[in-house]
Design goal:
The chain is of the alpha+beta class and 173 residues long. Helix content is 28%, strand content 30%. It has one domain: Gcn5-related N-acetyltransferase (GNAT) (Aminopeptidase), CATH 3.40.630.30. The strands form 2 sheets. Strands 1-2-3-4-8-5 form a 6-stranded mixed sheet, sandwiched between helices. Strand 3, helix 4 and strand 4 form a beta-alpha-beta unit. Bound molecules: coenzyme A. Coenzyme A (COA) binds next to strand 3, helix 4 and helix 5.
Length: 173
């Protein structure tokens, strides 16, 4: 993802179904993206090691529908030697295996670095689709915890019960 993807990011997060398990279904104000979220996304870009946030694009789709969403592979914010996987897609392409395909690509890429012991992923305990993707990638449930309430600019994100999945090097996948 690059700075000129701002409109695509704001549009993706304007669907309350997309953000249901991210922030309780709120649209993210454009200025929150500009001031907080986009700089974080860009700071994770590490093309040399194949890490960061990646746009998932369908070149055969109609104009205006080519951006399907994104997937990320970034340092885990709690366990810095791990890499954390994430994904977010437009509702129109859910259920076609896109997240599983993108996730498998990034898991393979992450484990290609022999110094990475674990690929992690976290989601709301009730986010069945996201959990299913983690399971299809060979990840295993490692625990339940609470995402504390947070504020990003003017966006207030409520606390949520969440799950941690991990794929350990050498444990399949
Ligand atoms: C989570 C998300 C990325 C999944 O993307 P996707 O491309 O639809 O995922 P896939 O098609 O690869 O796999 C989805 C799986 O979940 C299953 N699933 C979907 N909804 C489900 C539900 N409510 N209960 C149980 N399983 C469900 C699908 O049947 C499929 O499993 P299957 O292949 O065994 O049938 C997508 O739903 C999304 O963008 N959600 C909003 C953003 C989000 O919540 N991101 C994750 C935050 S951590």
């Amino acid at each position: 993802m690059a700075a000129d993807d701002l409109d695509a990011l704001v549009d993706l997060d304007s669907d309350p179904e997309v953000t249901r398990y991210i922030n309780g279904g709120q649209a993210t104000p454009r200025e929150v993206y500009v001031e907080h979220i986009l700089p974080r996304i860009l700071a994770h870009a590490d093309a040399a090691r194949g890490r960061g946030y990646f746009a998932i694009v369908d070149d055969d789709a109609a104009a205006g529908e080519r951006f399907l969403g994104w997937a990320h592979l970034r340092p885990d914010h709690l366990e810095p030697t791990w890499l954390e996987l994430g994904y977010r897609l437009h509702r129109r392409v859910w259920g076609r295996g896109v997240a599983t395909w993108a996730g498998a690509t990034l898991v393979r890429r992450g484990l290609a670095d022999a110094s990475v012991p674990v690929i992690s992923a976290r989601t709301d305990v009730d986010n069945r689709a996201s959990r299913r993707v983690m399971e299809k990638l060979g990840m295993r449930l490692a625990g339940e915890f609470e995402f504390p309430a947070a504020t990003i600019g003017t966006l207030a994100i409520p606390a949520a019960q969440a799950v941690l999945y991990v794929l350990k090097r050498g444990a399949g996948g």
